[in-house]
Amino acid sequence: MIGKLMSDTAFIQYLNNITSDLNRYLSIIIFIFGTIGNLLNCLALSQRTLRSNPCATLFLASSIASIITLISGVAVRLLAGWSADLTDTSNSLCKIRIFILFTSRTIASWFITLATCDRWLSSSLHANHRRLSTLRNAQRGMIIIILLCFLLYAQIFYCYEANLVDSPLKCYGRTTWCQLLIDSEFTSIGVLLPSILMFIFGFLTIVNTRQMTRRRIQPVTINTITQVVTLNEQHSWRMKKTDQHLLFMLLVQVILLTLFSLPQAIQNLYANATRYEIRSSVQIAKNNFIFNLFILLTYVTNGMPFYIYTLSGGMVFRKALHDSIRDFIQIFLH
Description:
Strand order of the largest sheet: 1-2
Low-confidence stretches: 216-239
Strand content: under 5%
Number of helices: 13
Distance between the termini: 74 Å
Radius of gyration: 24 Å
Shape: globular
Helix content: over 70%
Mean pLDDT: 80
């Protein structure tokens, strides 16, 4: 019996040490590479060749939101690994940080969702749908998403509190109802719903592009004269090279974003379903380890877009990146 207690104590300490190391060292990697990557994204996607493209504009806005997420989320967790997180002890800092974190993460996901919708519209065979794929509509969508996220997470200022003891984090929902509300909102609206819509619009976009490539030259009678015109000559329906690369970049990001975000969503659902179960100290340590690991995995989605765009964006993104770095160096040297 004594031996089992000692082994359990050692195992709990082992898990707690791993959890602390994750917050210290994995957070550093995610924060450094994620911040640098998103800054380079902002330089590349703000180039004149991409600035007027609604999908590229949504990518740019998502990168900005991801930078805010990394600062408010990963940087603070990094401090927590060294016991230097002021949001654990200050109520006002706790509420403000969590509000910024949840809104920026949700905004970043929904901007990518809007980008998948834009790709579906721009690849449609129907001219009315293609006309909706404009920069103005993308900007309107971004404003609506930001306002809705602000309203959605406004209750954080009431629910969250610092210096908590019986919770996964010291800065957390102060009541069971608050924890359930915030976790359910983020899981459903910040992860599950965007992921579902991304896959739906992504699938519809693939269907549209296949229909366009299968379409053959068709005769069109005008004033009793039969003229043969191609799809490009009629409405320029074939996707341009830039749009093709943006679509591929988007689909890769959607898949990886879903894979890295779903574990936390599943963990939140499991935690809420078993909230009132009595757990042993070992089970609590395991849950705490899994909780911290899955949270860090979700931050990977905010740090990986640049590397996705570089590998899958073809010459379009790489050329824009090269031009932006060249322009930045010239401005810096002069």
